[in-house]
Amino acid sequence: MSPEKVFQLANMLVLPQWLLMVVAPRWSVTRWLMNSYLIPVCLAVIYVSYLFQGGPVDFGSFGSLAGIKALFANGGDGVMLAGWVHYLAFDLVAGSVVVRDAQARQIPHWLVIVPLFFCFMLGPVGLLLYWIIRTVRTRALT
Predict the structure, then answer these.
(1) Where, by residue number, does the polypeptide cross the bilayer (predicted)?
(2) Which of 8, 46, 109, 125 is the most buried (most CB within 10 A)?
(3) What is the pLDDT of residues 7-52, one digit of tens each?
(4) What is the DSSP secondary-structure string of 6-64?
């Protein structure tokens, strides 16, 4: 399967869970998806298969910005796809954590929707927004 097809497949794989976390966060299927990590695990399989497709990864590259730039510049489509799948997987995990934590702390779901959108689009920005909302609502940093 071409990297472009896998890219499209990976993007389509995450959309149902994101949609369910926004519109049906307490539905049993949504909870099962969030707690099972099924989709992030599927993405992890894709990640591993494409990360090492071009040969061994120079883990020393992770020690500097120049190393990261070289890794992506020289790694080709497989490394770029692996990087994108990495974002998809961890943004989805972050979104799941936000929904579960909000439910546990009884934070109204309508306050979580904007952070979820930003988790989906900009990962850490959504997590930061949720942390601010949570801190204000619970008056606690933990």
Answers:
(1) 32-52, 81-99, 111-133
(2) 46
(3) 999 999 999 999 999 999 999 999 999 999 999 999 999 999 888 8
(4) HHHHHHHHHHHHHHHHHH-TTSHHHHHHHHH-HHHHHHHHHHHHHHTTTS---GGGGGS
CA angle 11, 15, 21 (to 5 degrees): 145
Backbone angles phi, psi at 25, to 5 degrees: -65, -20
pTM of the model: 0.90
Specify the DSSP class assigned to residue 139.
S
Length reported for the chain: 142
Spatial CA neighbour of 125 closest among 110, 140, 114, 135: 114
Taking the C-alpha atoms of residue 95 and residue 113, their distance in angstroms, rounded to an integer, is 10
| Cβ pair 137, 107 in contact under 8 A | yes
Residue 109 tokens read as 């779901």
| Cβ–Cβ < 8 Å for 79, 51 | yes
Give the whole-angstrom CA distance, residue 26 versus residue 17: 12
> How is 95-128 classified by DSSP, letter by letter?
HHHHHHHHHHTT--GGGTHHHHHHHHHHTHHHHH
